[in-house]
Every structure is written in C-alpha cells, then in structure tokens.
TrEMBL record, chain A:
Protein name, as recorded: CPBP family intramembrane metalloprotease
Residue ranges of the TM segments: 38-58, 70-92, 104-123, 149-172, 184-216, 222-243
Statement: the UniProt record of this protein carries the keyword Zinc: no
A GO molecular function held by the record: metallopeptidase activity
Keyword Transmembrane recorded: yes
Keywords: Hydrolase, Membrane, Metalloprotease, Protease, Transmembrane, Transmembrane helix
CAAX prenyl protease 2/Lysostaphin resistance protein A-like domain ranges (all copies): 149-236
Organism: Winogradskyella ouciana
Pfam assignment, any one: Rce1-like
GO biological process: CAAX-box protein maturation; proteolysis
UniProt xrefs under InterPro entries: CAAX_protease (IPR052710), Rce1/LyrA-like_dom (IPR003675)
Length: 252, 167
C-alpha cells in the first residue's frame, strides 16, 4: 500500500517510518488512541462504582420493592448499552452466531454445572465456618413477591449474564485490547470483573471464572458462550437456593 | 551495466542507524536523521531526540513512584489486617487484607513487565477498597482524604506515563 507524507505530500512505495524529503514521522500516533481508551476505561469503572454505591443504599432503604429493583436493573442496562454504543460496530460482531463446535458447546454446559456446585458449597462453608456469617439466599430475597422463582431467575440468572458479559467481555475487553496484548486483556477483564463483585474473598473463585470466560471470548470471538456459561452457573445457584430455602421451611 | 553503476554510486547509509539510503534522500527513512540536511536540521533532530529521552526518563520515574505506592499499600493493608486480628480476633478482615495485600504486591512486581495494566489495576483496586470501606462505614470516605488523593494522583500519573511511553 502506498504511503504519503501529510506534510509535503511525497508518495512512498516502500514502507518507511520517516519522510525522506521533509523528515516528518509517518508512524501513526497510537498515544492519542491509548489515552482515549484509558479515559473511557477509567470513566466506565468510576461510573459503575458510583452506581454500585447508589444501588447499595437504595436496596438498604427499600429492601422489598420491585419498582426499585427494576429501576436499578434498568439503569445498569442503560449504562452498559450507553458505553457499548461508543464501540457498537466492534461489539455487534460479537453477537454473530458462532459455528457450532461441540467441544465448546459441551464445555459451556458441563463447566458451569461444576463451577456452580463447587462455588455454592465452598463459599457457604467458608462463610459459615470461617467467617461465622451466612451468605444471602438469592431466592429468599424475592419471596416477598408473587412468583418469587420467576423474579429470582430474571434478576439473577437472565439479566446479569446478558449485561455483565456485554460490559466486561464486550465493551471493556475491546477497550483494553487497544492498550495491551490479548493475554493481558483476558487477565485484566477477569480481575475487574472480580473486583466489581465487591467481595475480596470471592476473588478466589470469580477471578478464575472470569479468566475462563475471557479466554473463550478471545478464542471464539463471540459473547454467546460466555452468556450461556454465566446463565447456567447463576441458574443453578438460584435453584440450589430455591431447594435449600424450601427444605429449611419444611423443617420448621 | 550502466544501471548497476548508477545504483552503486547513489546508495549510502545513515550515519546514526546505518540503514541504507539513497543519496537524493535528505532524511533517513528509518530514524529520520537529516543525513543530507543542513546543520539546523541536524540540531533539531538531536533536540527532538533529547526531549523524547527526557520524557521517557520522567515517565520512568512516575512509573517507579506508582510501583512504590503499590508496595506501600500492600504493607499497610497487611499490617492493618494483622493488627486488627490481634486486637479483635477478626479473621475475616485478616484474610481479606492479606488477599488484597498480596494482590498489591503482585501488581507492584508486575509493573516491571507490564506497567500500564499493573498500575491501572492497582488504581481500580484502590478505588474499590475506598468504596467498599465507605459502604460499610461512610465516615471512612473522608478519613485520610489527603493521603487518598496523593495515592490516586501517583497511580494516575503512573498509568498515563506508562501509556505515553508504551511502544
């Protein structure tokens, strides 16, 4: 491809770094692009931290309000969609249906079954025996509503995988790719994904979970497998919560 | 034969980077040195390179400061966890602080290979710890405010410096 100098308009057939006529650098400046990506990543993270604080206090103030739950979920979805709109072309490509590869399809079903059971029982064990506290029962949080299982599945198993995958493996992944290598991007998105769960103990399992989701997104260039894995994992957690909640109720 | 003779005569090499260049070229296509330029062009080239070198040195200093901040944070957090454990037997706080301290240490060590991402993640981790503390006890948000601003400033400067010199 021909290269021309922006200053003196000399055309070069070979790949040169500097114009041989006026000395102008012909290397594309990537510093500006990197700074923009860095600013966007920092803005994204700070806004989500503020959102998390606001959501926390709203949940504290209105623990049994479907309206508040819907408002918080809608704001989160709008924020994710708003940031994603900045890079919508690259993100839309991630929603193309991938060619069916049975290895990854099988993995996408088997892995979350394993991860959900392992995480549920190890986290519960750690919380009860190590920290002498109890992890909230996700299903139990919706029993003030009619059809609690429906709401629990919607707010825990369906919406988070859709929007969290878009936010972390979609938008954030693309922005970080502009700054660092693919491998480092996988590590960084997994780390940030773990951080926003606001539990340093949970870093132990969320970090490897995020690494696997990041690797799959990187290898297959799609968000679909991540959404499926994330959904199955959260769905199983909800179903175990549903089972344990009702078993405890029957015992009483 | 005539063409070959012309080719031999018209090629030279850059006196800075030794890249072969044609004699009609004023500037080296590889490093931009004005091989056939005026004394003023040569002076400008050297001045520009000196400025770049200074920028790199300054960025290097900021990255080193950010790395030291990460190590200091690791030390403070682990120490605080240990002291709290001996005072209140708070095992949860001890484990959380040791985990966060180890992460700070790992990120500090990573700055020698990947300064940009290591300092960026350190900054995000620090912001998150401020927010988590503020959620549990809102008064902590304003406690040691100047210290917090200093840490954020050092880490922020480190991130942007690492971004500016990344090849």
């Amino acid at each position: 491809m021909d290269k021309s100098c922006s200053s003196c308009k000399t055309v070069f057939l070979e790949d040169v770094k500097f114009c041989t006529n006026c000395g102008q650098s012909l290397l594309k400046s990537k510093v500006g692009t990197r700074t923009t990506s860095l600013n966007i990543i920092l803005a994204f993270y700070v806004i989500f931290l503020l959102f998390a604080v606001a959501a926390y206090f709203l949940y504290e103030q209105y623990p049994f309000s479907l309206k508040v739950e819907i408002i918080i979920e809608s704001i989160f979805a709008l924020l994710v969609l708003g940031f994603s709109a900045l890079d919508y072309r690259a993100i839309l490509k991630l929603y193309k249906l991938p060619k069916i590869d049975w290895k990854i399809v099988t993995f996408s079903v088997v892995f979350p079954i394993f991860s959900a059971f392992t995480v549920y029982f190890t986290v519960e064990y750690a919380n009860t025996h190590l920290f002498e506290s109890f992890e909230d029962n996700y299903y139990g949080g919706y029993t003030y509503l009619d059809h609690p299982l429906f709401w629990a599945i919607l707010f825990t198993a369906i919406l988070p995988p859709i929007f969290e995958e878009l936010a972390f493996r979609g938008f954030l992944f693309n922005q970080l790719q502009k700054l660092v290598s693919e491998k480092v991007t996988i590590i960084a998105t997994a780390f940030i994904f773990a951080l926003v769960h606001f539990s340093f103990i949970s870093l132990i399992w969320i970090l490897p979970f995020g690494l696997i989701l990041g690797y799959i997104r990187s290898k297959y260039n799609t968000l679909w497998y991540g959404i499926v894995i994330h959904f199955i994992h959260n769905f199983i957690i909800i179903m175990i919560d549903y089972y344990t909640y009702n078993s405890t109720l029957l015992e009483l | 034969m005539e063409d070959m003779t012309i080719l031999e005569v018209s090629e030279s090499s850059c006196s800075i980077c030794k890249t072969p260049m044609q004699t009609e070229n004023i500037y080296c296509p590889e490093c931009g040195f004005p091989e056939n330029g005026t004394d003023s062009d040569v002076a400008k080239f050297h001045a520009r390179n000196a400025m770049k070198k200074n920028q790199h040195m300054d960025a290097g200093k900021k990255i080193r400061s950010a790395r030291n901040v990460l190590y200091v944070m690791a030390g403070i957090i682990i120490l605080f966890g240990v002291v709290s454990f001996f005072n209140d037997q708070d095992i949860a706080l001890l484990i959380s602080n040791v985990i966060v301290g180890i992460i700070y240490l790992a990120l500090g060590s990573w700055t020698s290979k990947k300064p940009l991402v290591a300092i960026l993640l350190g900054l995000l981790l620090y912001l998150t710890t401020i927010i988590i503390s503020a959620i549990f006890e809102p008064s902590t948000l304003f406690r040691g405010l100047i210290f917090k601003i200093f840490i954020i400033a050092y880490l922020g400067a480190g991130v942007y410096s690492a971004s500016s010199i990344k090849k």
